[in-house]
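Reopening this ticket.

The earlier resolution said the output was attached, but the attachment link was broken on my side. Pasting everything inline this time so it's all in one place.
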Amino acid sequence: MGEATGTIIAAVIAFASAVIGAVIAGRYARGGAEAGGRKAVEAALAQVHGQAAAEHWQWVRSQRHQSFAALFVAYAVLDEVLIRIAPEVRSSGGLDAAARRELGDGTLEMQAKTSQLALWGPGEANELAYALTETSIAAVASLLAVAGTNPEGMSAAWSRFARAREEMAQAHAAFLQRAGEIVRDPRQPVS
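Inline output:
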């Protein structure tokens, strides 16, 4: 074997080593690329899910704010009706059909807005909203009782109405305070 043959054999061995090295490196590179690709897809999916959760939370928060506001409007309307009608009842001793209808409509609106709010929570706000609605209904019932009371029982009936109005105002203040805390706290849970 001559020097040329030795060089050729060395070149063939070097070439074979290069090919084998390239194949091995290619396999590892492919595996690394697949793993990197998987991680990139997982990261993208996590980002999409995170964004979807954030958007859902913003939507729920918006619905809460709207339902709180709607209940406050319904309360204000019913409160205004009670304030306006009570002196009429005191002076005339009765309620006409239009006044009864206004009280009934106001009560139904409070109930509807409370039910709407129950969809969005949180549970503590729901409980306070139901308490507000119940005390408002009690105040309306108390005014209706005053309108149906004979003159001898009028003083006691007006005292019951005054207590019912005070309880209504306290329930409103409690709901207003908690609703404000919920609205201002960006970390409120969805459920």
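Reporter confirms the inline version is readable. The chain is about 90% helix and 0% strand. The longest helix spans residues 3-92.
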